[in-house]
Design a protein that fits this description.
Length: 118
Amino acid sequence: MSRPGSGRSFGAERDSGRQHQDWLSLVEVSGPFLSLPVLRSAWPALDPLDKRERERLRVEHATWQAGKRRRPWIAYVLRELLGWGDAVEIGGLDRLTVQVPEHDTSLTPIFALSVPGR
C-alpha cells in the first residue's frame, strides 16, 4: 500500500480520495464509526481485487443478501477479504458486554478484532 508522502502525484491523491468515497457509498454507514478520514487513515490506497476475488465477493454478498445470514458474510470480509484471519472473533463475546444503565440496556459486539492467543 502507498503511504502519505510516498511520492504520489496530486492527481493520484485525488483519485485515491474518489476511490474512498466510492467505496463508502457501497457500505451501510451507521454512527460515527466509519468516515472518509478513518477509511483513508486505515487504507491510504485501495488496491483493486483480481477477477477471481471479485467473483467470490459477489457470490458471498449475494448469499448474504438472499439469506440474511450476517455472520458468514462478516467472517468472509474480515477474515479472508481483508486478511485479518484469526485476529477476528465472531460471536461468543459476552465478556465484552457493556452495560448502559441510563438507557436500561446492554451492548454486546457481534465481532471483535484482537491479538490472537490473548
